[in-house]
Amino acid sequence: MTPCVVIPTFWTRRRGRVPDNLLTTYDHPTPVDTDGTLPACLRSLEAMEGLGRVVVTVAVTDPSIEHAAEDRVRQILADFPGIDSFVFGPAELGSLHRRLEQLEFADLMPGVSLVGYGAVRNVGLIAAAVLGCDTVLFIDDDQVIDDPAFLSKASEGIGERYGDGGKMILAKTGYYTDENGNYQRHESPHFSDVFWRRDDLFNAALSIVDRPPRITPTPVAFGGCLILHRDMFCNVSFDPWVVRGEDIDYVINARMHGGDVFLDGEWSVIHRPPRLAGEALQFRQDVYRFIYEHRKLEFAKSQVDLRQVTPESMAPYPGHFISSAVTWRTVLTALLRGVSRKEGGRYLRIARIARRDATEYAREHCQHYFDFQRRWPILMDRIWDDIALKPLFTGERRVDRGAITGRFPMVRGDGEL
After folding, report:
1. HEC letters along 211-266
2. Is 5 helix (H, G, I), strand (E, B) or coil?
3. What is the CATH number of domain 4-276+373-400?
4. Per the confidence metrics, is the pTM higher than 0.90?
5. Each residue of 2-47: pLDDT tens digit?
6. At a CB cut-off of 8 Å and minimum separation 6, what does 406 contact?
7. For the chain, which terminus, N or C, has the lower number of CB atoms within 10 Å?
8. Residue 63: which of 115, 120, 116 has the closest Cα?
């Protein structure tokens, strides 16, 4: 099985303050006046054996730069003519949405878009379905692959049964390492994190890497080293409303629908993440994320067609953060960080957010996912190998982007183009 390789990329403005929109606050988007980490990722793909179609999705923090970001990605890909690549940007999204309207799936368009981690990954799943691929492999643009057999290793076990009479392995994740091969975090915890031992619990969840068997069920997943079989991705979508950690959220989604995600202890990528824009902003996203996950699990208890997933079943991570204690843990952590660390004012505001705004966000949006998910398998069945969309994803039908209305060079604040 040759997988459809999908690389989500996230871009931001040249300068200015960090955007404050929940769904477009990405961990480390690339400024549009730089190449970022994408070239190194693509260079590592050139040595990969059996590489097929590569779909690069382009998401931005601000709609005003969507064309500039797409142009930058195309310029970068032009340096890699040996890679069979396809760039999915705003024009392609417009074509996809028009097709969804024709098929009477307009209500699903917000969850299949270039806004938010989950929606962007759903675009990748759509691409795999339209191209008729049995598997889809996600790689992030800040990763480097040093194993030419990466693709064959990714496919090992996929579509097979786990153990004697166990579940089918329809979703498999590898893990991230640094340049030295370390896959666990070793920073000493700050005293303000006494109620937020995230790194310690994450390390505990990854302890299965060194233990047999090689492939085993896991509560964590890594979106930049993740392969999904069609029997999984055509039936289970990513959640478009989870603001961060959509890969681990996918483990919950899979379990709710009777599946599981497995971790392969011999499959990994080198992770080279740029520096974060700010720790407080990342913490705020985690607050929304974990409170949302708790609400989602509670809501699922009322759904008779779903398998129940408990925080205990997701232990040690993220289970510790999605129990009923999540609100007071976030409030106390935000207060302790607010009086002892940089960005103190932001942390103190997050303490208020945890009690009010994040809870309201979870209450308002968690049902949206379940409504979206129930329609997802029907949509995927309709667009599988779709004759209208396939020429778009194969490049047979091209869009003249220079003729798109409103496509003008972005004007900088000093008046220069």
Report:
1. CCCCEEECCCCCCCCEEEEHHHHCCCCCCCCCCCCHHHHHHHHHHHCCCCCEEEEE
2. strand
3. 3.90.550
4. yes
5. 899 999 999 999 865 666 788 999 998 999 999 999 999 999 999 9
6. none
7. C
8. 115
